[in-house]
Amino acid sequence: MEVLLTKFYFNLSMNRRSILQITGILFFAMAMTSFHFYQKIYGENVIKSGAIFIKSTDDFEKLLKIISPFLEDVDDFIWVSKKKKYTNIKAGRYVLKQEMSANDVVNLLRSGNQTPVLVSFNNQDTLEKLAGRIAVQIEPDSLTLLTSFKDPEFLLQQKFTEKTILEIFIPNSYEFYWNSSAASFRNKMLKNYADFWTESRLKKAKDLGLTKSEISTLASIVGKETTQKSEQPTVAGLYLNRLRRGIPLQADPTIIYTIKEKKGQEFEVKRVLTKDLAIQSPYNTYLHRGLPPSLIAMPDISSIDAVLNAKTHNYIYMCVDVENLGFHAFASSLSQHNNNAAKYHRWLNKQGINR
User: Fold this and answer.
1) Hey, what domains does the chain have and what are their CATH numbers?
2) Is 166:130 a contact under the CB 8 Å cutoff?
3) I need a labelling partner for 134 at 20 to 30 A (CA). Which of 5, 23, 108, 299 fits?
4) 105 Cα distance to chain centroid
5) What does the H/E/C string look like for the chain?
6) Distant-in-sequence, close-in-space partners of 283: CB < 8 Å, separation ≥ 6
7) Alpha-carbon dihedral angle through residues 37, 41, 43, 48, given to the nearest 10 degrees
8) pTM score, whole prediction
9) Cβ pair 226, 328 in contact under 8 A
């Protein structure tokens, strides 16, 4: 009897030990499984920081190709996406940060919380060039942008033409979402144009007897005439003197504009020839008094403000200063100007610049 009891207690002890061992193994397995799934969801997955760009037409398969170079384990991202029912792909520019988890990435993309881009452009000569410059910075292509800029209904509503609409684009840097539409880009530029023309600027334009469009037109000539910001108010004052006296502007940039209209924007003009001054065009300011029908390029802020704050002087002539290249020699009399012009033409001939 004693032996049986001893055997019974021994077996019971063995069973308890086995149960504890099995239980321990099960708990360990469960813990490992939990840790595995925790790692899939919350473990570090992004191996490098950077921005991804998701187009409006991209689906999940395309997204995987875009995002794969940034992920340590693409399968974990796919698994978490399925568990969180991430199927609605939202276009945009998203910044991934190193050590983000698959869960972090899915939450970011699903929320649509994209990071804006800074869109910048300088004074472009044409709408076509502007569209090309913007197209490399946001999703819409250049043709879509250009079509929006030239939309007849928009132009009619805002009282612009394909020639004058260029004035609403003030060269600067602007914050946009990468997937902004062409129309939203255009409309934001229109609003910024309205904001740019403050009461102070409008008063200065009125005091000069010019409209906003006329200021922009004159500024486009000033900006083409000189890139020296310190000289722009002097050049602006010269043209204003000519306008007030009824003297043709005789601005070479307007002649270059007419040549490019005929021969194409890529045609290079290093020298304006005498024969060019006879080109029949409303933009030829040698043949026609006053301002041309519209701006000849996109003026930047400095040239617009140069016109609004033009220097007061008696100059009505100017030509390139060969003793200070990049600047102009100004004159109040024709004889003085002819002397300056003769120096310039001799310099051109010496350089072999014929066109």
Assistant:
1) 50-111 (3.30.1490), 117-196 (no CATH), 199-351 (no CATH)
2) yes
3) 108
4) 27
5) CHHHHHHHHHHHHHHHHHHHHHHHHHHHHHHHHHHHHHHHHHCECECCCEEEEECCCCCHHHHHHHHHHHECCHHHHHHHHHHCCCCCCCCEEEEECCCCEHHHHHHHHHHCCCCCEEEEECCCCCHHHHHHHHHCCCCCCHHHHHHHHCCHHHHHHHCCCCCCHHHHCCCEEEEECCCCCHHHHHHHHHHHHHHHCCHHHHHHHHHHCCCHHHHHHHHHHHHHHCCCCCCHHHHHHHHHHHHHHCCCCCCHHHHHHHHHHHHCCCCCCCCCCHHHHHCCCCCCCCCCCCCCCCCCCCCCHHHHHHHHCCCCCCCCEEEECCCCCCCEEEECCHHHHHHHHHHHHHHHHHHCCCC
6) 254, 257, 258, 261, 292, 293, 296
7) 140
8) 0.85
9) yes
* pLDDT tens sequence for the chain (355 residues): 555 555 545 555 556 666 655 554 545 445 445 545 567 888 899 999 999 999 999 999 999 999 999 999 999 999 999 999 998 999 999 999 998 999 999 999 999 999 999 999 998 999 999 999 999 999 999 999 999 999 999 999 999 999 999 999 999 999 999 999 999 999 999 999 999 999 999 999 999 999 999 999 999 999 999 989 999 999 999 999 999 999 999 999 999 999 999 998 889 888 888 999 999 999 999 999 999 999 999 999 999 999 999 999 999 999 999 888 889 999 999 999 999 988 988 888 888 876 6
Task: Indicate the residue type of 84.
Answer: K
Euclidean distance between CA atoms 211 and 14, whole angstroms: 101
